[in-house]
Each structure stands twice: as structure tokens, then as C-alpha cells.
């Protein structure tokens, strides 16, 4: 008997009780690559914003701008850096929230039509509990008796989710800036379209994949915590909650 686990780049099958079931960060290849990929997204977003800025200010793009003129207008470049900082912080959260509000219901409707479920199933109810169950149990325990391993798992998962959400926000910013740059006449992305029609789509796909993954699947990995003692207690309570009626 095997259980499908959502692995870094897809789905893998693993038997119950195997070491793969640890749900540790080491098993989440996709999350391990988030930090490096976010750097690439930041560079791409800055390049797209810089290209838009150059077209608006000088009429040139990244490919044709005379970079010897950079030192002649330092104040303008400072404003560019400030604008980039605001976009990557406030703009990322705003764009990601707006898109999820608008497109989220559409994606869920499509998933229901296709009968595709992304609800995580507990692979072993005798060993794992959901994150919110673990948090609720810890809230009723004194700090001195809280299992350190459980607290560590919760902290690691929270950090993973935070990194992923930051990546998705940066991805939406990248999509927005690349799309904006593409639709400006004389921009660098427009020049790529003249070279090969598929080139802008290739650039747009770099930030778009994380957005699509998040909308269709959510955060990579699992929200289950390895806590056998509490899991067995919950299982006993659930089995004892049903009392069969005596036969007439």
C-alpha cells in the first residue's frame, strides 16, 4: 500500500512508514530552490522596470541605451531604486492578493469541473496530525512541557510557507512588469518579439510558473506534523465519539 506524496517537482509514491514520510525540508526540493529562484525573479523584475523607465525617460531600451550617460543623472536612478523597493514589497503583496481574489474562484471552479482535488490527506493518522491540530494542542500546554520537536516542525513549516509566499508575490510582480514592458513600444521585450515571436512568452514564463503552481496546488509540501502521541490520542477520541445505538 502506498501513499502519494507531493514532492518538490511533482508526485512520488512512497510506502507508509518509509523515511520519505518525514515531511522535512530536505524532502521538498521545490522549497529548497525558492531562495535562489527568488534572486533570479528580483533581477528579472528590476530589468523589466529599468527597461520601462529607460523608454519613458530616454526613449531607449536596455539594448540601445548609452550606459555612459548613467552618471549624469544620479537622482533619477535613486528614484528608480526607491520605486523598485516599493514595488517589490507593497506591490508584491497587493498584486498577489488582488489576483487570488479575482482568479481564485475561477481556478477552484475549473478544479471542480475536472474533479481534481488538492486537499491534503493524512498519510498515517496514528503518526501525523494537521498543523492546526498541533498548534491548538500546544496552546493548552505549559511551555515547559511542549515537545521541542513539534515546535521545531511548526517553525520550519512557517518559514517555508513564508518563503513561498514571498516568492509568489515576487513572481506576480515579475509577471506584471514583464507584461507592462511587453506592451510599450520600443521596449526591450518588444525588441525580443521582433527577433522571435515566442521570446517574450519565454521571458514571461519564468515568473509565471510559480504563480500557476500556487493557484492550482498551493504551497508545496504538507501541513502535517510528526507527533505520534497526540495523533494516537486524537484517533482514540474520534473512534470513541461514535456510540452505536442498541438494536431493538
From TrEMBL:
Keywords in alphabetical order: Membrane, Transmembrane, Transmembrane helix
Superkingdom classification of source: Bacteria
Residues that span the membrane, as ranges: 37-57, 77-103
Keyword Membrane set for record: yes
Protein name listed in UniProt: Transmembrane protein
Protein's organism: Stenotrophomonas beteli
Amino acid at each position: 500500500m502506498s501513499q502519494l506524496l507531493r514532492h518538490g517537482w511533482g508526485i512520488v509514491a512512497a510506502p507508509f512508514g518509509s523515511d520519505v514520510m518525514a515531511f522535512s525540508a530536505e524532502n521538498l526540493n521545490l522549497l529548497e530552490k525558492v531562495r535562489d529562484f527568488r534572486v533570479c525573479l528580483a533581477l528579472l523584475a528590476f530589468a523589466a522596470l529599468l527597461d520601462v523607465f529607460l523608454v519613458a525617460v530616454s526613449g531607449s531600451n536596455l539594448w540601445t541605451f548609452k550606459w555612459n550617460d548613467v552618471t549624469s543623472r544620479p537622482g533619477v536612478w535613486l528614484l528608480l531604486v526607491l520605486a523598485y523597493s516599493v514595488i517589490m514589497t507593497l506591490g508584491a503583496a497587493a498584486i498577489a492578493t488582488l489576483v487570488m481574489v479575482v482568479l481564485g474562484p475561477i481556478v477552484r471552479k475549473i478544479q471542480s469541473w475536472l474533479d481534481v482535488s488538492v486537499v491534503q490527506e493524512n498519510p498515517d493518522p496514528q503518526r501525523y496530525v494537521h498543523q492546526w491540530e498541533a498548534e491548538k494542542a500546544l496552546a493548552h500546554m505549559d511551555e515547559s512541557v511542549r515537545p521541542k520537536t513539534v515546535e521545531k516542525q511548526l517553525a520550519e513549516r512557517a518559514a517555508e510557507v513564508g518563503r513561498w509566499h514571498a516568492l509568489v508575490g515576487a513572481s506576480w510582480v515579475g509577471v506584471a512588469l514583464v507584461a507592462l514592458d511587453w506592451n510599450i513600444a520600443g521596449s526591450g521585450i518588444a525588441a525580443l518579439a521582433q527577433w522571435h515571436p515566442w521570446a517574450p512568452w519565454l521571458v514571461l514564463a519564468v515568473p509565471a510558473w510559480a504563480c500557476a503552481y500556487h493557484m492550482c496546488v498551493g504551497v508545496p509540501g504538507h501541513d502535517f506534523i510528526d507527533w505520534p502521541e497526540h495523533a494516537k490520542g486524537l484517533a482514540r477520541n474520534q473512534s470513541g465519539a461514535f456510540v452505536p445505538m442498541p438494536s431493538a
